[in-house]
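Final report, Chapter 2: Outcomes

The project's central promise was a pipeline that accepts a single protein chain and returns its three-dimensional structure in a standardized token representation, suitable for archiving and comparison. That pipeline is now operational. To close this chapter, we reproduce one record exactly as it appears in the project archive, with the input sequence first and the structure output second.
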Amino acid sequence: MADAARLLGVLRLGDSAFPSGGFAFSWGLETLKDDGRVRDGAGVEAFAAGLVRWRWATSDRVFVRRAAAGGEDAWIALDAEIEAMTLAAELRDGSCRAGRALLRAHAGLGTPSSGAWRRLLEEGRVHGHLPVVQGALWSGAGLAAADVEALSAWTLASGICQAAVRLALMGPLEAQRVIARLADDIAAILSRPPPEIPHAFTPLADIAVMRHERGAARLFAN
């Protein structure tokens, strides 16, 4: 019964219907479609795999993991570190908007760690970057560290594929096939320890996000 309850908790928090605000983000995919660089499901899969492997696995995972294991002092330091290492203003803004949207949902649900996070935000001691908020809130909701990491990667992969469907780059069935293959990549990543020093290299996506605000049509926030 304990394993079933744990699984159900992970499924609930990872459900696309959970009001986390992630539906507003395309991670640069909208710009890449407009540029003609991503035209179909294969392009979406390559784009998503790059973000999973070269941003989430080497950076976000580190922050999620450490936030899940830490307390307020750790959250403040980790949040500041993400702010300092994220050079693009659009990426910083997107991370904070997504983190604060997730916080609002958990505050409404009464997740234990949400109260401390709201206080830190009100005091101006944190920015609210998504990976740190994920680790803190999901750990506070009772998830184990391994579940927190898996859920963070899953929400990124599934969120990109949902954005691709909305952009008409692929249909829902193809999106599920892409997500299944990305899940294999995620499982392989989770079988290995994370790096000691967080780092990321996704220049195509980063530049696309920076150019997005000048796009002629904008369905997504980034």
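Archive annotation: Residues 41-69 form the longest helix (29 residues).
This record, like all others produced under the grant, will remain available to the consortium after the project formally closes.
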